[in-house]
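Entry 14. Structure prediction run on the chain below.
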Amino acid sequence: MKPTELRIDVPTRPYTALIGPGALEQLGDLVAPPLQAEVVALVTDANVVALHGERARAGLASWGLRIEQLTLEPGEATKSPRTAEAIWRWLASSGIHRGDVVVALGGGVVGDLAGFAAATFHRGIAVVQAPTSLLAQVDASIGGKTGVDLPEGKNLVGAFHQPIAVVADTDALQTLPEAEYLTGLAEAIKHGLIADEALRARLLVERAAIRAREPAALAGLVLEAAAVKAKVVAADEREGGERVHLNYGHTLAHALETLGGYERWTHGRAVAIGMMFAAAVAVELGYRDRTGEHRALLEGYELPTGGAGLPYEQVAAAWSKDKKYEAGMRFVVLEDLGRPTLRRDVPASALRKAYEAVS
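Output returned:
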């Protein structure tokens, strides 16, 4: 079965996301390698390679290129400048040249790291994103954001580097641990809240099928959620305008992740709390109260709606170091469902009160 094509029409280099079951085995037939490519640099992690490495290599075989593989340790702690340097040095020692191609096989950590290495090695070489997590398939693999974390904050170092293609095999989602699956669902819920009424309806009506990971439900969910991301990044490739709306819930989420050493909260649980916080901020600013709709979606997928559990002062200090700071903190809130807006003038009293609602 041929995957469904989703076009990402970014100005610098339009490309296609291919979404559906069995896409990994078809990778080499679905995507053409760069004309000058001699080597494929396959970057993955130890968990993913055990589950999907053989399928990916089989899919790449039709290219007829030499395949070099680097297997990283799983987890957010790997997404560091030290690992980026290790990838650069491995690329150099493996004889990777400017005309070759990196294939990022894994979740958001692998995609961000391999994408960042591709963006910077030889000042930029081609990359194919082959996301295996729900978070990466609906969000992280689309739009060209790459980067690494610092102890001071998440994703503080990075580059925009669009892939030549995204190959999202929804069969891979069957192997995800439940916590990682829920992380991706948090991002899908975010897309529904900021943009798409049909996606919100799908998440409610098909909740049982999505929770059960029924193949047809997964394929439909990924396609619809990824389409939200594709539409936004096509209109605003480098986050000069509406792309910032994709950060909904992430201001508090990144602060929680940083303060928790990237271990206390999964990204999805942090984003869930962050979206409830943003909904509470909107109420404080006089917008329509949609906290109930947030709660219904999140609790329906067993995602948290509170429990941040840290002093407000500590959290506020952490988010002031985030990359969303720009002559003052910027907060994405909803005027109503599907109507995000960026506010730079949120009173500290409103932030504190909203935080108390989720602490």
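The first strand starts at residue 4 and ends at 8.
Filed with the rest of this week's runs.
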